[in-house]
């Protein structure tokens, strides 16, 4: 992942695993850019921040239990209520 301009602000909190979640966002407008999940060692990038975001498909859907009741998920992409089994273990 490469940011084209500026440096994001970071808000760090503890996730359900007890490990850090780093939320990166624009300091000017507050737009979410990405979140780094220490437990799974991955970034979750906001599709709206990608140059070709409409052309990409996610590998998986995580934390779907946190979604609003009207959210719809593609049936052909693996879906998990929280992190997938084995991800986030020390």
UniProtKB/TrEMBL annotation:
Residues 2-65 form the CENP-V/GFA domain. Gene3D superfamilies: 2.170.150.70. The keyword Metal-binding applies. It comes from the Bacteria. It holds the Pfam family GFA. The keyword DNA repair does not apply. Keywords: Metal-binding, Zinc. One of its GO terms (molecular function) is carbon-sulfur lyase activity. Belongs to the Gfa family. This is CENP-V/GFA domain-containing protein. It comes from Pseudohongiella nitratireducens.
């Amino acid at each position: 992942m490469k940011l084209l301009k500026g440096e994001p602000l970071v808000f760090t909190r503890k996730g359900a695993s007890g490990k850090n979640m780093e939320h990166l966002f624009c300091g000017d407008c507050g737009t979410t850019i990405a979140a780094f999940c220490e437990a799974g060692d991955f970034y979750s990038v906001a599709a709206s921040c990608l140059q070709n975001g409409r052309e990409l498909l996610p590998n998986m859907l995580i934390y779907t239990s946190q979604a609003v009741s009207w959210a719809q998920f593609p049936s052909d992409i693996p879906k998990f209520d929280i992190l997938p089994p084995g991800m986030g273990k020390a």
